[in-house]
What we know:
two-stranded antiparallel sheet; 2 strands; alpha+beta; 2 domains; elongated
Amino acid sequence: MTELAKPFRISLPAISRHVRVLEDARLVRRHRQGREHLIRANAAGMRDAQKWIAQCAAGWEFSFDVLDELLMSEQRKEKKP
C-alpha cells in the first residue's frame, strides 16, 4: 500500500479508504501476501462500470438532443414575424 501512496499527497489511511471503496465497487481486487497488499484492477468490474457509464451517457445524450430541438424550435418561433 505504501508504494501505491507514494505519488499522492494524502495519508496512507486515506489511500486505504479509497482502495476499500474501489474494492466495494468491485473495480479492484486486493490480495495480501504477508504484510504486502497486492492490488489489481478487476476487468469484470471495470466492464460493469463502463456499461453503467455508457447507459448514463446515452440518457444524457438523449436529453441534450431533446433540449437542443426545443431550443431550436423556440428560436424558429422568435424569428417568425
